[in-house]
Each structure stands twice: as C-alpha cells, then as structure tokens.
Amino acid sequence: MATNKKPGNWKKRTLAVRGGQTRTAFQETCEPLIFTAGYAYETAEEGEARFKGAPGFQYSRISNPTVAMFEQRLAAMEGAPIGRATASGMAAVNAVFMAGLKTGDHVVSANALFGSCRFVLENVMARFGVETTFIDGGAIENWAAAMRPNTRMLFLETPSNPTLTVFDLKAIAAIADKAGARLVVDNAFASPALQRPMEFGAHIVVHSTTKWIDGQGRALGGMILCRQDFLDEHLNLFLRNTGPILSPFNAWLHLKSLETLELRMKAHCENAAKVADFLAAQKKVTKVLYPFRPDHPQHNLARAQMSGGGGVVTFEVAGGKAVAFKLADALGLIDISNNLGDTKSLITHPETTTHQKLTPEARAAQGVTGGLMRLSVGLEDADDLCEDLEQALKRA
Ligand SMILES: Cc1ncc(COP(=O)(O)O)c(C=O)c1O
User: Fold this and answer.
1) Alpha-helical runs (H) found in the chain
2) What gap in Å lies between CA 203 and CA 91, rounded to an integer?
3) 90, 97, 253: which to mutate for ligand 1, most atoms within 8 A of CB?
4) Torsion over CA of 296, 287, 314 and 273, rounded to 10 degrees?
5) How confident is the model at residue 2 (pLDDT cuts 50, 70, 90)?
6) pLDDT band with cut points at 50, 70 and 90 for residue 4
7) How far is Cα of residue 47 from the mean position of the Cα atoms in its chain?
8) What are the C-alpha distances in Å from 391 to residues 281, 334, 349, 378?
9) Is the CB of 157 under 6 A from ligand 1?
10) Residue 90 alpha carbon to ligand 1 centre in Å
C-alpha cells in the first residue's frame, strides 16, 4: 500500500472526505473497491504472523481493505475509537446484544423503538434468558428506577422511530456509568453529521447506514462504534466467527456517501423544517413532531444534543388510518415506502408497516396511532413537496 496523506487535526468535513483512506500501489485518488474473499501470504511465516495479530488481512469475513476504510472514516466522524461494519443496521444491533450479553443479564430499553430492535430484545434475547424492561425513557427517573444489579445495557434511539422522541444522553449515560453498564445508542436518525452520542457519554453507537449515510436508497449496511474494551472483551471474536460483516461493495458505496453526508444533511434539515412548518399550519393535521420546532416536547434538549433537526417529520392527521391512507394514496410526488433517509421523499404509515408487529398496547405506549405518518424529507424543492402535501390533504 502506498502511504496516505498524514491525518492532521482534521475537522469533521475533512475527515468525511479524507478519513481512513489508504491507496494501493496505483495511487488512485478515489478509494479502491477491493473484491476478494482471501489474501495471499508471501511465506507460511507471514500467514502464521497474521493469525497472531500482525497487521494485514486474512479473510474478508474478518476484514477487508474497503470495509476497513469505511469503518475508520465513520469512526473518525463520530469521534469513536473503533468502528465495525455489518451487513445491515439490524445486524449491528443484534451483534451488540448477542456479543455483549449473556443468560441472566438485564437490559433497560426505551419503549420508543424501531419494531425490529424491539423484536430482538423481546423475542431473540429473551430466548437466551436476557430480560428487558421497556420504559417511558423521557423521564430520567424511569431509567434509574428500572436498573437492577444485573443490568448490563441501556438501549435507546434518539430521535426515535417514528415519534422523534429525544432522550437525554448525558443523564442516561451517567446512570449507566454508576451501575457499570453500557449505554447503547442507535444514531440512525441523526447520523454523525447532526449528533455524536459518544460526546455525551454513550459507550456504544449503532447505525443503520442504509439510511442517511447511504442517503440514496441503494444499499443496506450497519455500523457498530465502540471503545477498545468492548471490542476486546465481547465484539471482536463474535464478529470474526459469526460473519455479519458488510460486503465490500456496500462499504464502498457508504464510504463515498460519507463525503457528502454533512452537505446532504444540511439540505435535508432545511427542507424538513420548511415542510414541518407547512404541515403545522394545515387544518387536517392535528400534530407535527419535528425536534427543532419549538412545540416539540424535548425541543431544548434536541438543540443541545443535535446540530440540526434531522430529515424526518412525523405528523398526525384527524380521522385515523382511513384519512392517512387517503392522503398517502393521493400523493403525486412523494413515494409511499417504509424506508427513510433517501434523496427522494418517502412517506410511511408506521402502524401498518414498520410497527405492525407490535402489540396494540406497545404501539399506544409509543404514540403510534392510526393517523400517524412518518415523512422522510428528501432533496426535492421544498415548495414542490408542500404543494404535493397540500393537494393530497385536500383529497384525504
Ligand atoms: C432506528 C433504526 N434502527 C435500525 C434500523 C435497522 O436498519 P436496517 O434496515 O439497515 O437493518 C432501522 C431501519 O429502519 C431504524 O429505523
């Protein structure tokens, strides 16, 4: 490998473009996409040394040069010592729990959670004797009250999917620290462009890089960001031996996407703020949730933890599911989809899609009602988006 530019004390924008880059002997300017399952050793001694931990690659289930570049770049942007890329966001969440917990351990989790994350805790981990207490995480005292001597992890998403609840990372991290437990934060909705949970004391951060990091709806991916102790004690051997690693192709896409993440998120936030204000002025809209609007329940906290309100706006229409469906079906520009974090605006009805598998009680506890819609605001002109919503609301 030819040497890379020497990393200086670079700011986030520079890290997004330059972080983690290594060049091959061809001295390419664009990061190389290296497709290989294995690596050849000059000598048997070199093979032995690699398996004893000498620098270099062994097998692409363990690591790959393109994947490693993506891991290093995202870790640098997030201010995390270690990054490990996985095949999807759920592979990252699952690996953190499976690697870090054992029978008899206890987890405290916010109940405002993406459906699959809840499934893993409630069904998969429960089968292995790991119990989870789901709480209304908005009140700090609920976290403290739910702690047990065997609590090993605290888990939350902030802002959460789909109700955009914002949690106090500093206060919750302090509760974890006091108990010798780890706070795990799903940062998929904010991305490192808007929020760096480790700065507030989080021990582990997970991402669905499928969302804002890819940003163009092309490929699935995930990332685990952690400190050396978690890697050494739990994660490293688990990942090597169970194989949830990201493919080099998807890693390359997401690596290149990081270069424009800050610029894209700025534009998504501007568009989302305009659309949120537009929706708040509509008669049929009974509620608008957007972290940077003053009427958001945790508005001050959002401004303290995040540098932008994000690209998702959640709102509720009067008339429940029937009106929500009519609205979605009447849209002429915005697509109906369960994905988010795309250049294209996407609308979701969480009750019947992403949160369908939850019990009615669990949905109610999260505020997922029949009239609730989640809008991932894309990079189209905000005026066109508002016009589309206006005509659809009229027909709903
Ligand atoms: C907050 C959150 N975490 C995790 C995931 C899972 O990510 P993936 O679809 O990449 O597995 C999602 C997906 O929608 C999500 O919204």
Assistant:
1) 12-18, 44-51, 65-78, 89-100, 115-119, 126-127, 140-146, 169-179, 228-230, 236-242, 248-258, 261-280, 299-305, 320-330, 360-366, 382-395
2) 18
3) 90
4) -60
5) very low
6) low
7) 36
8) 14, 12, 18, 18
9) yes
10) 6
Question: For ligand 1, is residue 389 a contact (CB within 6 Å)?
Answer: no
What is the Cα–Cα distance from 269 to 382, expressed in whole angstroms? 11
Q: Say if residue 5's pLDDT is above 70.
A: no
Is the Cβ atom of 368 under 6 angstroms away from ligand 1? no
Q: Which residues pair with 208 in a beta bridge?
A: 222
Helix ranges (H only) for 222-260 are 228-230, 236-242, 248-258
Distance, in Å, from the CA atom of 192 to the CA atom of 251, rounded to the nearest integer, reads 17
In the reported structure, the alpha carbon of residue 89 is separated from the centroid of ligand 1 by a whole-number distance in angstroms of: 5
> 156-176 pLDDT, tens per residue?
999 999 999 999 999 999 999
Ligand 1 atom at shortest distance from the alpha carbon of 160:
1
How far apart, in whole angstroms, are the C-alpha atoms of residue 59 and residue 313? 42
DSSP-derived 3-state class of residue 280: helix
pLDDT for the residue 112: 87
- Find, among 158, 208, 153, the residue nearest to 175 by Cα: 153
Radius of gyration of the chain (CA): 21
∠ CA 363-154-296, nearest 5°, is 50
CA 132 to each of CA 95, 152, 156: distance values in angstroms, whole numbers, following the listed order: 16, 10, 12
Q: Using 50, 70 and 90 to split pLDDT, how confident is the model at 113?
A: confident
Ligand 1 lined by 316 (C-beta under 6 Å): no
Binding site membership of 114 for ligand 1 (Cβ less than 6 Å): yes
C-alpha 180 chain-centroid distance: 24
Task: Give yes or no for residue 385 having a pLDDT over 60.
Answer: yes
Q: Which of 158, 204, 208 to mutate to test the pocket of ligand 1 (most atoms within 8 A of CB)?
A: 208
DSSP-derived secondary structure for 14-59 = HHHHHTT--B-TT--SSPP----SB---SSHHHHHHHHTT-SS--B
How far apart are alpha carbons 265 and 306 in whole angstroms? 12
Type of residue found at 328:
A
